[in-house]
Prior knowledge:
Layout: H1 2-25, E1 34-36, E2 46-48, E3 50-53, E4 56-61, E5 71-84, E6 90-92, E7 98-112, E8 118-123, E9 131-137, E10 154-162, E11 168-173, E12 182-183, E13 195-196, E14 199-212, E15 221-232, E16 242-243, E17 254-255, E18 261-262, E19 269-281, H2 287-308
Parallel strand pairs: 13-18
Antiparallel strand pairs: 1-2, 3-5, 3-19, 4-5, 4-19, 5-6, 5-7, 7-8, 7-9, 8-11, 9-10, 10-14, 11-14, 12-13, 14-15, 15-19, 16-17
Helix pairs in contact: 1-2
Amino acid sequence: MLIQNKRSLRMAVGTVLWTVVTVMLGSSARAEFINFDPTGTGATVMTIGGIDIAPGNALARGAVPLDVGKTFELDFQSTVSGFIDVNGRTNALQGSSQFTAVGRFTEVVTSLNAAGTVAEFALAPNQSNSFFELYYNPAKVADSLAGTGFNQGTLILSGTPTSSPANVGVFSLTTGSTGSPQAFDQFSNHYPNINTVLGSGSAMISADVTYSNPDFFKTAVSQLSFNTSLVTPFAQTSPSAMFTDRAGGGPPNVSANTGSINGLTGPDFQFQADPNISFLVAPIPEPASFVLASLGFGVVLCISVWMRK
């Protein structure tokens, strides 16, 4: 019995030490500032904490009518308005170049209240050709109304959605599930025959970085946190007629289909989206972590030898 208790103690001590070492080594990744070159030429490198994206478009394809457990594709596109500096200020883009963001995510409705006015959704466990991309173009070619030019130019970053950390969203109708529709396009009035339900919400999506262009991203980035507001009607930009649901460029291939009342007649539900992006830098263990790791590995090795006696 004494021998058995002694071995149990050895195993417990070894497990605790190994856990401490693992936690210390894995705790270095965090949201952080990065070095970024907005020209890709090496002429100007700035330290930024995020990217501010202008009001753009999000299309929940096949989301109407909402029901718990229903999956839908969320397409997104917009231009970048500026870069967020270390003091939290947005430095607006200058000149004739543009940066654009485009993506596709598979979402699932996780809850819906009895009145049908508040819906919660999250990233679906199974993603179908999902992606997120950033492009640089020396000319301004993106057209919000047409929905074109958002994936043209040089690809500078791409990623795939990840469920870690949590990806969640909520949308609430402010006038009931069917009440008091208003004009859909209150920015440019290009859709005079389409109305919309009124509502607001937000969403947060994370993506693992699969590619970053070193001419632009001077700091290695491992993950993105993408959060956005979602509102109807459109008041700060035009509703897009077209979207893309594939990575790697090419012309838009999805036509928005909201019906006569956006959010009610469907099958699609189109939102004005106003996002921003922050970064998770690839973990680099600190010197103290290396020391602790070395000590930990040594202790674990000693315990292993001890347990054999």
